[in-house]
Structure formats: structure tokens, C-alpha cells
Amino acid sequence: MSLAAYHIQVVDAAGNVIPGAHVEIRHEIPGQPLAAVYTDRDGTTGAGNPFDVDAVTGYRTVYLVGGSYQVRVYTGSSGSPTFEAPIRRHVAIGLNAESTVSHSVRRW
Q1: Cα gap 42→52, rounded to integer Å
Q2: pTM of the complete model
């Protein structure tokens, strides 16, 4: 099974790259457990979670099972970060992530 790609680049409000920032991805379910994150689409090599973006470009692509996630970005230590962006909630990753399916049939 191919995993969904998630591309992220960390920048500040002025558009300046925040190199080496930490990114933490959690499932958007009760308890918010950390998601399994991979460096390859086949899910054979774990990326760790949290993971760091590139030290020059602030960019990173990771792969994970499609679903709804919380994405936290920060620098410094997790418990007392020196910078922390607002946590992004209900980030839909993957095909049909958080889609609504209608089972009604309209007949003419």
C-alpha cells in the first residue's frame, strides 16, 4: 500500500525560513497519539516523530497513512519551545481523508 505524502515548509509570518524546526504529527482522535511517519512511500523506513525540517530550506516531505491529523511546529525543546506556531487541527492527509459520502440516490 502506498502512503500519503505530506509536504511542509516552515516559515515565519514574514516568509523567512525557520531552519531545523521540529514537526510533530498526531492523530486527530481522543488521546492524540503520535502518528507513524516514514521517509518513503512504501513505509519501510521510519522518520521519527517529531522530525526536523531541512536546516537550509525549512522543507521536508514525509509519508503516513491517510487520515486526520494535528500538526505542531516548534523550535527548542518540546516542553519549553523557543518558538511555536499555532497547532494546525484536522489536517486531512491522503485520498478521501475526512470525506463525506452520500448514500442517497436521486431518481428522475
Answers
A1: 20
A2: 0.84
